[in-house]
Amino acid sequence: MNNVLWLRDLNIVECVVSFAVLGLFFYGRHWRKFAPLTGFLAVQAISAAILIPILFFRKATGLSLPMAYDILFCTSWISAFAEALLTIGVIYHVYNEAMRPMQGLQRLGRIIFRWVAVVSVAVSLAFAAGPHNTNTTIAGIAAAIAPQLQQGVCVLTLCLLLFVCFAIRPLGLTFRSRIFGVALGLGVMTTAFLVQAAWFATSGAHSLYSPIYIVGTVGTLLAACVWGVYFLLPEPERKMILLPTTSPFFTWNRISEALGDEPGYVAVAGFKPQMLAAAELKVLSSASHKQERLGAATPPAVETRPTPALKHPLAVSQ
Length: 318
Fold this sequence. Notes:
mainly alpha; 10 helices; 0% strand; elongated; disordered C terminus
């Protein structure tokens, strides 16, 4: 069996498995909690259903070569950009769910994540607009941006997987948790994409039926299988988080909760009544008048004198 038949059969199996996992998500109502992952599977399955007939059964469909190329180009690059953006959404969702008990670290991670996402997109755009890219057409720009964006998303995904693996116990998760399953599937898929991206610059990657693309297809298929298994099996309940006071998670969560809060202000010197607003002066004046009335209505304290000490114990009986 040559590589064309391998690619055809693997792509068909991947498309069927993606639709099956997508149906499992809707049947088990998991799409509400994992909306970005559901969107990713939908884009992946629909794009595979469009590309497989064009790549392997074009003569049976009756499409001409120019029409088939236009459909192939639009579907490939639109799905590539959509999958990259949805992958970022999945990573963001996984981090939020993993750090849900620690609000401080969750808020700090959101800020860092947004900056990393913006920098990744900016670097991809700068790389596409560089002097090495002589093709200034829309197709050339898209072909230059998409691989860079995909590689940046892959690196971000692997960093998230490492973080979840090291922090799974302190966060109250287990290796059977669906959060870990989603991260594991993304890690398998992005590892295959990075291996495949290392061969993009070679002449073998210029053909659509190159054996290089078998690696990415196998990685996507394995990721869909991992997600299907994790969402088919029951998920254990999340454990209670018990952290020692010396834990770095506890310390950084306290620090992160304090970051961004508005500090209080105390007037030390140079205060004048003119600095207050009219409403504040009115409130302070009414409070001082009320204090004066309360002080005037209070009866004077009765003066008490100490009883003189008895000089002799027998004076009590007298």
